Amino acid sequence: MNARDLVRDQREALWLEGHTGLYTTSDALSFLEQVGIALRYGAATNLALASMYRATQCQVPVPENEAPAHARAFELTNSLLASGKVVELNLFADRLSLAHHRIVPAIYALRRGQQEPNLSDSAREALGFIGANESATSGDVRRLLKAEGQRRPDAADLALAELQRALLIDRGPSAGPTTGVFYLTREGYPYRVFATAHPEIVSSAQKLKRSESASQLLLSYLTAAQFATRRGLVSLFKLLLTPDEINGTVESQIHAGRLERARQGRNEVIVYRT
Question: What's the predicted TM-score (pTM) here?
Fold first, then answer.
């Protein structure tokens, strides 16, 4: 298969081209189950990742107007978070993403299996507040840290992002209007202690060895993305795996016949074997 065919197949598999859009929570959940991980908002030209905005927008035969598609994506994302089968993460390429429940135990095992995070004072204070109140909105944390009126990202934004990146908290669904177009309330999303909100993920993660988690994550990604360079894998998963771990996992999966090497122009790429 030549480089053009690889890219074409990748974009279709990631729902970046050639799809008829998402309209129901069931549609959106099926999409996330297929791709494993998707950017919460728009696609990025330099990232081989699915995008909730792009997948929701009808692409054929005529592209849907972005405004209604993005509004629908916002509503569907809120429903996905409410379902408990999708988790929002900020671990990939400094972008917010959505991950299907099937792959989150491996992600949790890799991230939380590392050294305990050295939290900032603001993050530690915010975590204690969220735990004591079972949940707290970003507005609550902003008031706690006296960050109201600060330039964004403010102290609350930074503390919450730090805690979410450590998988100590996650964002739940926002309470919006029951009729009409969904919108985010001024108070923002509620944040919960991750282990309390997702005990089944924590339990499943505790049963996984690090090597097993690495294989699950990389195979899940490559099943959807079809191919990647080693450098791309290292960049995308740098908060979860070391370069040596990625190289070792790739080589073991090539030996097992699940992956293979191929050429894309001058670059060697790792291709998922269908």
Answer: 0.94
